[in-house]
Amino acid sequence: MSYNLSALDVVKLFNVNKISPQHAWERAVKIQFPDSRSSREKGCPKNIFLAICEEGKIKNIPPGKYTISKLNKQYALKAIEILGIYHGKEITPSDLWHKVLEALNANNNKSHNSQMKIVLALWNTSLIKP
Question: How many H helices and E strands in the chain?
């Protein structure tokens, strides 16, 4: 059970069923977390995924208005930028998170709530557009 698998499932659900990324997310997390309402409702993973969608960065998902989370959008776009620089080099979710926070001059005491796992899963499966 993981949010990164949920994100990959959303892309599949969107491509097959043509439902909104928000509805596809709800369906995907029900599959990944059938017994955990709190996991299904966790905001950070959902919002970072929807922020990437909103910017039109995921193949086959059109840009649109999918989230109101500005902070997660900043994290997502900075993470994608950093991955472009580190292209081909391995980077852990924690390392990517620290690089994002450093680049944004953000509070380094924050912990990532699976956001970077989602970005990396999409990046490593070539679902993020350059």
Answer: 7, 0
Q: 43 near 55, Cβ under 8 Å? A: no
Look up residue 58 and give its amino acid. Answer: I
Q: Which of 26, 52, 44 is nearest to 113 (CA)?
A: 44
State yes or no: pLDDT of 106 exceeds 90.
no
Domain containing residue 90: 1-130
Please, which pLDDT band fits residue 1 given cuts at 50, 70 and 90?
A: confident
pLDDT band at 128 (very low <50, low <70, confident <90, very high): very high
Question: Which residues make Cβ contacts (< 8 Å) with residue 85, sequence separation at least 6?
Answer: none
Is the separation of the CB atoms in 63 and 56 below 8 Å? yes
> Which ranges in 66-126 belong to alpha helices (H)?
70-85, 93-103, 115-124
Q: What confidence score (pLDDT) does residue 89 get?
A: 86
Task: Report how many domains make up the chain.
Answer: 1
